[in-house]
Write a sequence for this structure.
């Protein structure tokens, strides 16, 4: 294949219309945009181990409905800079930096998974940056959230501590393992068992880098699922109750999706802000906007229409 | 002796490790408080320690390097201490304030390398408390590398320290340490996590100099 560009296509996937960067205290964040530059802006915030190009189907649907859709890669993800430190608080701050740099005033914000949880926290401190908030399966309950690094554990295991310290000591040696497009897609499949194979292969071509010895995910190899730290789902849910803006939450009801947050409607309803709306989708997995992009886009567009 | 400084590398960042006193045997490692730096000379309360006395500047503090973009967590500072333990071998650790919290964490994570930990008063001992403090998200301008890093001051004064989380580390320390009581609380300020640790049956409660003297004999 030397000298040839390997590409994959996926039905409805469209690369961004524009790309740029914003700065967050010296960390460069890669920004992608779809839609007309003078259209009303909304932001999409991806989850853990994802990147902004995972919106390549969903974002164009919103853009085609008349929105300027902006999304950025979290630090260490996609084409954004790698950092010495990764934390929930740093991600929250990066989101604020991106939004206040890109937008002139309050905008609708849509967050998926960990991105939704982080935006929930950000809005409790800076509610004025948003006109409306849509959270796609990023509302933590007592169940675990697998892509949250600062992970809640009832009984932490010492093995987690030593493994993290060992990884830190070997940090300069860590490399993502090179593979073929097919190989990387196969390795991601256990995290995304409900998503089509051709989508996973497409993701490799927009989320991995082609080196001489094969494709590598761009994500910082220091990042890994799990981790440790004092984090409680109730701390996030208290932010939900504190919201004072239009809110739509969409929960996946699929309980065996490995990346799913598995929150149930009854876990969330007690914390809904006044006027908040919750949709519970029994048959759609954690990656709602990938699995059912048209349905989720229509739901979001209908909700956001008054907030253009 | 005058302070001697060497560089250790943690995750690609250069950290300053100071030798405040020479000698043979197990080192005593001092971990400073939030916003502080290592002392210039051996503190009087270490006079009872017969071996070397070391002091580490945490990432973003003292003469250590400042990372770009913040993101500090006390758990990350554990890696700073771990590098020293790996380089110098088992140490007795004395932590002041923030350093006390990090000392507890690393004693739980590496009980075979921490031959006793003393949790002492100092800046930043409470952190953000047992529950998240009021929301405060602040984007700071790019720093010029001077210490203490404003992000360290911001983030390490707001991290949550639940008592039950602290007790996990006490449990790991006691299970993995060759010492019967590897943790001594000397701090007189007792935020919730310190009070919970001090109340554990296998944790000792001693003044700082007595705690140093105790571990010097073990």
């Amino acid at each position: 294949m030397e000298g040839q560009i390997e590409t994959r296509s996926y039905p409805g996937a469209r690369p961004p219309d524009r790309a740029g960067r914003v700065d967050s205290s010296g960390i460069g964040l890669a920004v992608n945009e779809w839609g007309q530059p003078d259209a009303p802006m909304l932001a999409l915030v991806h989850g853990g181990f994802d990147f902004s190009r995972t919106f390549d189907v969903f974002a164009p649907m919103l853009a085609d409905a008349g929105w300027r859709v902006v999304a950025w890669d979290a630090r260490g993800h996609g084409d954004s800079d790698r950092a010495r430190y990764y934390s929930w608080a740093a991600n929250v701050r990066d989101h604020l930096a991106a939004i206040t740099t890109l937008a002139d005033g309050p905008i609708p914000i849509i967050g998926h998974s960990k991105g939704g949880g982080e935006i929930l926290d950000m809005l409790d401190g800076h509610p004025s940056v948003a006109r409306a908030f849509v959270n796609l399966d990023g509302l933590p309950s007592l169940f675990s959230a697998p892509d949250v690094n600062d992970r809640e554990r009832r009984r932490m295991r010492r093995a987690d501590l030593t493994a993290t310290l060992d990884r830190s000591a070997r940090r300069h040696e860590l490399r993502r393992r090179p593979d073929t497009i097919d190989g990387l897609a196969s390795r991601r499949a256990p995290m995304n068992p409900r998503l089509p194979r051709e989508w996973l292969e497409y993701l490799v071509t927009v989320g991995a880098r082609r080196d001489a010895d094969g494709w590598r995910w761009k994500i910082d190899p220091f990042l890994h699922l799990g981790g440790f730290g004092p984090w409680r789902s109730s701390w996030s849910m208290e932010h939900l109750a504190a919201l004072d803006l239009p809110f739509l939450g969409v929960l996946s009801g699929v309980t065996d999706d490995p990346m799913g947050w598995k929150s149930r409607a009854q876990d969330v309803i007690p914390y809904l802000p006044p006027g908040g709306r919750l949709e519970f989708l029994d048959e759609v997995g954690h990656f709602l906007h990938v699995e059912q992009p048209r349905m989720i886009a229509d739901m979001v567009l209908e909700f956001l229409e008054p907030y253009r | 002796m005058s302070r001697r400084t060497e560089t250790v590398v943690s995750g690609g960042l250069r950290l300053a490790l100071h030798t405040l006193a020479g000698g043979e045997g197990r080192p005593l490692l001092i971990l400073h408080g939030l916003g502080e730096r290592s002392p210039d000379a051996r503190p009087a309360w270490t006079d009872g320690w017969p071996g070397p006395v070391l002091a580490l500047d945490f990432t973003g503090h003292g003469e250590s390097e400042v990372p770009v973009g913040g993101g500090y967590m006390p758990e990350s500072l554990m890696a700073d201490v771990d590098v020293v333990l790996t380089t110098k071998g088992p140490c007795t650790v004395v932590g002041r304030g923030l350093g006390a919290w990090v000392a507890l964490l690393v004693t739980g994570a590496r009980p075979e390398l921490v031959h006793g930990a003393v949790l002492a008063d100092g800046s930043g001992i409470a952190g953000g408390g047992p529950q998240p403090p009021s929301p405060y998200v602040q984007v700071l301008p790019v720093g010029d590398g001077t210490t203490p890093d404003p992000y360290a001051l911001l983030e390490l004064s707001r991290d949550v320290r639940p008592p039950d989380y602290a007790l996990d580390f006490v449990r790991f320390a006691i299970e993995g340490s060759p010492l019967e009581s590897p943790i001594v609380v000397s701090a007189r300020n007792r935020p919730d996590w310190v009070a919970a640790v001090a109340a554990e049956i296998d944790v000792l409660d001693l003044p700082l100099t007595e705690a140093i003297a105790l571990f010097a004999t073990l």
Summary: The radius of gyration of chain A is 18 Å. Chain A has a mean pLDDT of 92. The CA atoms of residues 248 and 277 of chain A lie 5 Å apart. The beta strands of chain A are 18-24, 27-34, 41-45, 68-72, 107-112, 130-136, 208-211, 214-217, 247-252, 277-281.
